[in-house]
Design a protein that fits this description.
The chain contains six helices and two strands; from the N terminus they run βααααααβ. It is mostly helical. It has a two-stranded antiparallel sheet with strand order 1-2. Helix 5 runs antiparallel to helix 6. The longest helix is centred in the C-terminal third of the chain and has 31 residues.
């Protein structure tokens, strides 16, 4: 969950902000649509495929190289989620598969909710900001899956607004990690699980 980086002794960059931004910005954009604030369009699909999907997947590979199991699992899985979501939407248009039924799509979203619940438990050893991101994502998948499964469009709208909070919380955490690395000390509070402040000479970077 954590990686200790002592400035001056480890020159490896922290890939977590990149992955978090890819997740957060894509989540905000999609949920603007779910909240019925913008129509579905190519910008959402392109963001999901490239930044939410491919870029997050690359961030996960970088986490693998650094030995961070949690970060690798989170970023590669959610990168795969965004790519699979775009593919899921396009397969019927390409004539390669029938459109998913509401029950099947709801099950798909609930399975991602189950995965996220497992990851959320892992954040209990991380910062409060990590917990907000993952537990709000559990709720988002539960709402979206229920909207499909039970045919309740209102739940989809509620999920849209909740998803905006989830995405913005990920963007906040990414910004906090960028600023911590840039300035060498805590700039935005994230609710660290210990009382000691971050110092320039002993920078602790909390990974997603």
């Amino acid at each position: 969950m954590e990686r200790n980086t002592r400035m001056g002794h480890d020159t490896a960059a922290n890939p977590a902000p990149l992955g978090l931004m890819g997740f957060g910005m894509t989540t905000v954009l999609l949920n603007l649509h779910n909240a019925q604030l913008v129509p579905m369009g190519g910008a959402i699909l392109a963001m999901g495929l490239v930044f939410g999907g491919l870029t997050q997947f690359v961030a996960g590979l970088l986490e693998y190289a650094s030995g961070n199991t949690f970060g690798m699992t989170a970023f590669m899985a959610y990168g795969a989620f965004w790519i699979s979501l775009v593919v899921l939407l396009f397969l019927p248009h390409w004539g390669l598969a029938p459109a998913s039924s509401p029950a099947l799509l709801g099950s798909y979203l609930w399975m991602w909710g189950l995965f996220t619940a497992i990851m959320a438990v892992g954040t209990l050893a991380a910062s409060r900001a990590h917990q907000v991101v993952f537990f709000s994502l559990v709720l988002l998948f539960a709402l979206l899956g229920s909207a499909e499964m039970f045919g309740q469009p209102l739940l989809n709208v509620i999920a849209g607004y909740e998803g905006l909070l989830c995405g913005l919380s990920a963007i906040y955490l990414a910004a906090a990690e960028i600023f911590a690395a840039q300035f060498g000390h805590t700039f935005l509070p994230i609710g660290l699980p210990h009382a000691e402040p971050l110092h320039k000479d002993d920078l602790v970077v909390h990974m997603s």
